[in-house]
Design brief:
The chain is α/β, with parallel strands linked by helices. The protein is built from 12 helices and 9 strands.
Amino acid sequence: MKNISLSILDLVVVKQGGTALTAIQETVRLAKHAEHLGFERFWMSEHHNMEHIASAATSLLIGHVAEQTNKIRVGSGGIMLPNHSPLVIAEQFGTLATLYPNRIDLGLGRAPGTDQNTAMALRRNARDTSHAFPSDVQQLQKYFCLENSSATVRAFPAEGLEVPLWILGSSTDSAYLAAQMGLPYAFAAHFAPAQFRPAIAIYRNNFRPSKQLKKPYVMACVNVIGAATDEEAQFQATSLVRMFTGIVTNARSPLQSPGTLPDSYQIPEVRAMVENMLACTFIGNKRTLQKNLSGFIDATKIDELMVTNYLFDEVKRFESLEILKEVVSENAVYDV
């Protein structure tokens, strides 16, 4: 397996017995640990009206994490552009890039990251801004360009800054847009893996070089839970399965400690939906992860691997990242 770049996606999930503050504090510690291990980037995702997710004010958290770290790239996975004016996002990320030069990424999503009622509350004068997503991305690019200096509306301090834009996707729709605009493409296989391979094929086959990017660049986000043994990893993964079961059954709760799965998981339809969502989830010890991840990376030819690892125990969570780093290292050695 090639020594592929590693990154992290974090939703700043509130744990059972915790608060939004403790979730944010753990996110900062996770980012510091990822930086220590040599991870490439640390992204956070915009979600709204979700009681147990503390990443709604994504731009603020990006600044907070960037301030507490030194070199790891920090960004959005993503900013849900239909919720915002492109001018406001340009101003926010221009400010971040001014404060933390060459460290800020701007991943952009088409979905609202919430329910429709909340989406209306976020951008009250627009009914379906997702259709304007391509033109909004283009407008955002203009605000970052020096060529916009003669425009009536300009974004400061964004103008002239090189803030890398990414297109996020969970279906094939955004693959076409990322290809046409010549932007890097990040796919959310950690919860919507069904169209991952068709989407990256569309992206690569239709890619047009741009000022930002000369050839296709694919990043896949997957769930990875590593531990000393396969049994321990599977046990720790029950927290993730519980979380996804809650999503499917609309019985959301704080992230639970590992343990017995809820009765609702045994309902065939629920279990099938959860297992489909977890199709790009890798669980096990070093040898198991090395075998399964190498097969995935070799088959998909991805350029970068972004991971989520929702473990309840913070020490176990850090250990999982350490195991993953060893797994993808060219110098990793595994017992036969």
